[in-house]
Amino acid sequence: MVLNHFHIYLSSKGLRQYMCECNYHQDLFQLEDVCKSQRALDHIKTSINKINKVKGKLLLNRKKELYGDNLEPKKWASNEIAFVQAMTAQTGEMLKESEEIAK
Description:
The chain is mainly alpha-helical. The protein has two domains: 72 residues; 30 residues. The chain contains two helices and no strands.
């Protein structure tokens, strides 16, 4: 009888230890998932910042081509200016949505 209880005690102790090890490994996997997610979010934020910088430079260069020295739009450029403004607004909204998702 005592031997039987001792065997059950060892078995339950081993089971508890096994369960603790499983929880530890599960926590490690969850921690790795969180780290991967955080790295992905950091990459997205960095990409968004790079896109904003490049977009700003390209738009500045293109504005110089589309506008004259007196800061009035060139006659031939009015359609393109409207298109660029619409696309810039749309891209800005998409980037804001991406930033919200990344938070």
